[in-house]
Design brief:
Elements lengths: L1 E10 L2 E7 L7 E5 L6 H13 L13 H5 L5 E9 L2 E9 L12 E6 L3 E4 H11 L9 E3 L9 H14 L3 H76 L2 H39 L1 H39 L28 H20 L7 H28 L7 H49 L3 H47 L3 H6 E6 L11 E5 L14 H16 L8 E4 L7 H11 L6 E5 L1 H11 L3 E9 L5 E5 L3
Parallel strand pairs: 3-12, 3-13, 8-11, 11-12
Antiparallel strand pairs: 1-2, 1-4, 4-5, 5-6, 6-7, 9-10, 13-14
Helix pairs in contact: 5-10, 5-11, 6-9, 7-8, 11-13, 14-15
């Protein structure tokens, strides 16, 4: 990644600036400026253009103050560079943003070789392939910040970056892929398999319950089928019995019914006779007395009859006498006869009239007739009761024979039509029950079908669920993946251990080149990594004293100059073995170094194969100028105005 041109628009102090590194052939480019003029801002512009800004506000920190006052809402960084002699044009911009918001949308475009165009995340991925963002501190250097590389904690963390610099990408990616497979595939598969095993056991239980329910339903179905068979046979038997029901048997039954009715009628007649016998029994007992009363009454009736006859004669005589008294002959009817003297038949006594006597005679005769009619009974009650008992026995016999016939006919009613109706009712009940049984069989068949379908579904679902074998297989896969990771770690560690020694030799060589002051040379002969390579794989740095002992960097912190020389040696020693290349941008190059060490550092810069952009003050440039003369490319001077906006002026060489 060799920078050719950088354009800035409204980025920090720069309103509209263009820096072209292709004007001169030198490898060491100088951007000179006083403190606060914009050297660090240019350093930031390079990094923002390549990677954006995820740590701070992406426009509040970077938006030019004058542009903000004038409400000019455009900001971009454009970098043209080559990679493997192929042109790349990158542009990151914010063309519209709200000052009240914390962040704005960044529009990133990358054009490769004038044809292939990438935007957004795809463009960022292409940049990271050329130079990963986590390595930017090893190529875009800040003299004030590189000192942190000697911290123990940083030294341990930088190991991962060393692996990236050494392009252990295949191993790292393979390890990451295996870790990803374990974390995102095998572990979830194992967890899912265990969950599915539990679900499978639950499905097994549910399957057994449904199977038992089906078995119970099938048993009930078979019982209903048996009942249906029995009912069908009973229905057939009943229909056959109905067919057997003919007139002859009906006549026999009717004959018995007629006999019973006749006997019951005779018994009723005998009961009437019994009542009459009991009614007439008192007359039989008083027969003689009644006869005497009848004789007395008859004698009195005769006397009254005789008296009535005498009275009748008397009445005739009296009528004749009356006519004679009236002067009329009762015999010839001639008038003017002499009056006959009054003669009284009863000697002059008063007697009852003929009508009265007639009434008395009639009354007596009625009483006589009544008494004569009260004759003794023809049969005595005892005889009647014996006959009644006989009739009862006959009735019972007939009823017994009728019952035998009824049992033979299946308990039919006594009348023929009733018997047939009972048969029909039995047949209807049987047919109704058969329909009910069929409905129940249909329902059970439907339910069995549904349960069988559910059982089959559960069986299919069970087959999809993992069992113990899946769990065992997944555990084997995880163990195999972990073993592969261990092997990859072993390969990576062996390679890092090998490169660690090479990096150590190179950074010690760089340290000796850049550490030329008498003070440093009088104290130290080089730098080394802390610990033993076999026991400690971190990249914590320590200064090696002339007597061979190591300076405990944490117990006795080095000076700012010692720190910068140590970190600088490590970075350039590491760059020797880096699998990435880019134009190095170095800010505050010699701010902490004395003249001898600054010149030695400049001399070292002339040995680098890759271009380097040095962001320096005039004082730093004076320290470096003699060492880098003849190797300088372009030289720009930053010119700030009264509004603190800066421009760049190219210095003629």
């Amino acid at each position: 990644m060799k920078f050719e041109r950088v354009k800035l628009r409204n980025f920090r102090p720069y309103r509209d600036v263009k820096v072209d590194f292709t004007i001169s052939d030198g490898q060491i480019h100088i951007i000179e400026g006083p403190q606060g003029a914009g050297k660090t801002s240019f350093h930031k512009a390079i990094q923002w253009g390549l990677y954006g800004d995820s740590e701070y506000d992406n426009f509040r920190q970077n938006w030019n103050a004058t542009a903000r006052e004038e409400d000019e809402r455009e900001m971009f960084v454009e970098i043209k560079f080559t990679e493997d002699n192929i042109d790349h044009l990158l542009r990151r911009e914010i063309s519209s943003f709200n000052p009240d918001l914390e962040r704005a949308y960044e529009d990133l475009k990358l054009v490769i070789d004038g044809e292939n165009r990438y935007e957004g995340e795809r463009a960022q991925d292409e940049i990271n392939e050329l130079l990963p963002e986590q390595l930017k501190e090893f190529f875009f250097l800040d003299g004030e910040r590189i000192r942190k590389l000697i911290d123990d904690e940083t030294g341990r963390k930088v190991k991962e970056d060393i692996e990236t610099i050494l392009k252990h990408q295949s191993i790292i990616h393979a390890k990451e892929d295996l870790d990803y497979v374990i974390d995102n595939k095998y572990d979830p598969e194992l967890e899912r398999a265990r969950e599915e095993k539990s679900e499978r056991e639950e499905l097994n239980q549910e399957y057994k319950q449904i199977r038992d329910e089906i078995a119970e339903l099938e048993k009930e179905r078979d019982e209903l089928r048996d009942e249906r068979g029995n009912k069908k046979r009973t229905l057939e038997d009943t229909r056959e019995e109905l067919e057997k029901y003919d007139d002859e048997l009906a006549e026999q039954l009717q004959s018995r019914e007629d006999n019973i009715a006749e006997l019951k009628a005779s018994k009723t007649s005998e009961l009437d006779d019994l009542r009459d016998a009991w009614t007439q029994l008192p007359y039989a007992i008083l027969e003689d007395t009644i006869d005497d009363i009848v004789d007395d009454l008859q004698e009195r009736a005769d006397d009254l009859t005789e008296l009535r006859s005498s009275v009748h004669k008397q009445e005739i005589v009296e009528e004749l006498q009356q006519e004679a008294l009236d002067g009329r002959c009762p015999i010839c009817g001639e008038e003017h006869v002499e009056v006959v003297p009054e003669v009284h038949a009863n000697g002059g006594e008063d007697v009852e009239s003929e009508a009265s006597l007639t009434d008395q005679i009639h009354s007596l005769r009625q009483r006589i007739n009544t008494l004569n009619s009260a004759s003794p009974p023809d049969r005595i009650p005892g005889e009647v009761m014996g006959e009644i008992q006989r009739l009862r026995n006959e009735i019972r016999k007939e009823e017994g024979k009728r019952q035998e016939l009824m049992e033979e006919f299946g308990g039919r009613p006594t009348d023929a039509e009733g018997q047939k109706q009972r048969y029909k009712e039995n047949i209807n009940r049987l047919e109704s029950r058969l329909d009910e049984i069929q409905d129940e069989l249909d329902k059970k068949a439907e339910k069995i079908k549904d349960l069988q379908s559910e059982r089959d579904r559960i069986q299919r679902e069970k087959q999809k669920k993992s069992g113990q074998k899946t769990i065992d297989d997944t555990i084997e896969k995880i163990e195999a993946a972990e073993q592969a990771i261990d092997h990859l770690d072993g390969i990576r560690e062996a390679h890092i251990e090998q490169k660690r020694e090479a990096i150590k030799r190179k950074m010690d060589e760089v340290f000796k080149q850049v550490s030329q002051s008498e003070f440093i040379k009088g104290r130290y002969k080089g730098i080394d990594f802390a610990g033993d390579a076999e026991d400690d794989d971190s990249f914590v740095l320590e200064l090696v004293k002339n007597n061979g002992s190591k300076k405990a960097m944490n117990d006795h912190p080095p000076s700012a100059g010692e720190t910068q020389l140590t970190a600088l040696s490590f970075i350039f020693g590491l760059n020797e073995y880096a699998k990435y290349s880019t134009t190095i941008v170095f800010d505050t190059v010699a701010g902490r170094l004395d003249l001898d060490n600054s010149r030695a550092q400049g001399q070292f810069f002339t040995t680098l194969e890759e271009p380097i952009v040095l962001l320096v003050t005039d004082a730093e440039l004076q320290q470096l100028e003699q060492s880098i003369k003849g190797y300088t490319g372009v030289h720009y001077v930053i010119k700030p105005d009264k509004n603190m906006d800066s421009t760049m002026e190219l210095v003629d060489q």
